[in-house]
Amino acid sequence: MLTIQRKLADVRLSYPLEKEVPLDKTLVMDIETTGFSAKNSIVYLIGCAFCADGCWNMTQWFAPAYEDEADIIQAFFQFARQGGYTHLIHFNGNNFDLPFLRQRCAQHILPFDFSTFTGIDLYRRAFPFRDFLHLPDCRQKTLERFLGLKREDPYDGGQLIEIYHELVKKPDDFSRQIILDHNCADLKGIFHILPILSYGDIFSGKLKVKKVQANRFYDSQHNINQELYMRLRFPTSLPKEVSSSKNGCYFTGDGDYGALRVPLYEEEFKYFYSNYMNYYYLPIEDMAVHKSIASFVDRENRVQAKASNCYTRKQGLYLQQWDVLFEPCFKRDYEDPDLFFEVTPALKQDRNAFQIYALHILKMLADIE
Asked: Which of 93, 105, 203, 364 is the most buried (most CB within 10 A)?
């Protein structure tokens, strides 16, 4: 077994990681294996970065021979235990690295697992926002390119497998350095893509609406339309501009601030009563009334209400919602799936309501729950 240590002098945190984890108790880790299946493959390199004396450092445990696998696994877990580390940061580790190591521990009858660690899987955290960020996929190198990193390492983990097998047969410093450098680049890449967490922070509930106003504008057919404009302040600065649009809503964000533009509808909507059996429908007035007051209406001017006509109509100013966020909830017609709520004078003064609504719109744009 070989143990390689070095300082990562060029690593700088570009995301406030300390708000998520205790830096002095956190390991950033990545492994290299001879295949995807832990049943017939081994882990031959474990690399981890850690913060000490105000600087990020790296330790790598490398297996020059296949039979050294158990030694590097033991060395990693002993290092983590002796250092009192409680948190792990990795990329797709929940799906690959951690299960792989658990199975290899079982294979070697080693008493190690990850039950004492709290983890941040950057892949899992970024995956829900891949469409929101217009990403073709969620691979680490894709995220690195999105955030502006131009990696010089020409290899991927699959290409290194053959290099490692040849290295076991015929050791040479150059091939070993290729493997070590690739693992180091992966670890540095994890640091570089940490700011991807900023986009998830938008949906954390800490978003602030700094300004709300109604605007009028002319559309392409020269019709006057209305919109709600909200200026947003993000809990964490975004590293790269992002924009999204859907259902007539538009979002742009860059740095600390963003903007939402949402259609305002000034028209008549219908509120449908749920317990229609207790109502009569009045065809002349085109509305429903409760049976408790229907005695004031002639029998020939009323009929038993149905779900589709058990409503009252109201002219007002409305915003659309994609779930029942605010009540009462209005619709244009019974079969219409679109839902709306009225912008009342009280709502206009409720800044917290607009923060809830802004988050609702953003989740709709990102297609997340």
From this structure: 93
Q: Write phi, then psi, for 337 (nearest 5 degrees).
A: -75, -15
Give 55-108 as a DSSP string.
EEEEEEEE-SSGGGHHHHHHHHHHHHHHTT--EEEESSTTTTHHHHHHHHHHHT
238 and 357 inside one domain: yes
The answer to whether 249 and 361 have CB atoms below 8 angstroms apart is yes
Q: What is the pLDDT along the chain (369 residues), one digit of tens a residue?
A: 999 999 998 898 999 999 999 999 999 999 999 999 999 999 999 999 999 988 999 999 999 999 999 999 999 999 999 999 999 999 999 999 999 999 999 999 999 989 999 999 999 999 999 999 999 999 998 999 999 887 776 777 778 999 999 999 999 999 999 999 999 999 999 999 999 999 999 998 889 999 999 998 877 777 888 999 999 999 999 999 999 999 999 999 999 999 999 999 999 999 999 999 999 999 999 999 999 987 788 888 999 999 999 999 999 999 999 999 999 999 999 999 999 999 999 999 999 999 999 999 999 999 987
Of 170, 201, 232, the domain-final residue:
201
Domain extent at residue 265: 206-273+310-369
Q: Number of folded domains in the chain?
A: 2
Please name the residue that has the structure tokens 């983590």.
Answer: 80
pTM: 0.88
Tokens of 173: 């410093």
